[in-house]
Automatic annotation (TrEMBL):
Transmembrane segments: none annotated. Residues 1-24 form the signal peptide. Gene3D superfamilies: At5g01610-like (2.30.240.10). Pfam families: DUF538 (PF04398). This is Uncharacterized protein. PANTHER family: DUF538 FAMILY PROTEIN, T31J12.3 PROTEIN-RELATED. It comes from the Eukaryota. Keywords: Signal.
Length: 166
């Protein structure tokens, strides 16, 4: 017969093991976005982590600093080091920490909704739709999605010194 102290010790070991496994399985910020049907490219590279209240949907995502870049040649985006809002399936509301430059004004993006294969970005008074495909890759602070083009051209030229740039 197993003694009560053995049962307590085994229960404690099981609980500690379960907590360790659960902690190790915490998703990163990009994976967390995907569980709510959003593409990882909504956040730039370098997200350090996040906090999420699963009951209310309140979240905080942490970047390693302020971040800005251009997308599609005309849209400039700015991220603060901490982004907050409420997340639910296919919907981000009460957003704070992300802004877009429209003409000469910086406007806060306050809501993002996914409808089928499109993302709708709202600044409160207006919204714009973009294909989800545009957000599968995470942009990089400073250069957006076109960072590697120049680097790869330099690498190719270094690898083949006889190559011409004509």
């Amino acid at each position: 017969m197993v003694s009560p102290s053995t049962i307590i010790v085994l229960s404690f070991i099981s609980l500690v093991s379960f907590c360790a496994i659960t902690a190790a399985q915490k998703l990163n910020a990009y994976e967390a976005l995907e569980t709510f049907n959003f593409p990882r490219g909504l956040l730039p590279k370098g997200a350090l982590g996040y906090d999420l209240d699963e009951k209310s949907g309140n979240f905080r995502a942490y970047l390693n600093g302020s971040c800005s870049f251009s997308l599609e040649g005309s849209y400039q985006l700015k991220y603060t080091p901490t982004i907050t809002g409420v997340i639910s399936k296919s919907r981000l509301t009460n957003l704070s920490g992300i802004s877009v430059k429209v003409f000469f004004l910086w406007l806060n993006i306050v809501e993002v909704r996914r409808v089928d294969d499109e993302l709708q970005f709202s600044v409160g008074i207006a919204s714009a739709n973009f294909a989800v495909d545009n957000f599968y890759e995470c942009p990089q602070c400073g250069c957006g999605l076109v960072c590697d083009d120049r680097k790869s051209q330099v690498r190719n030229a270094e690898a083949n010194p006889l190559a011409s740039s004509i």
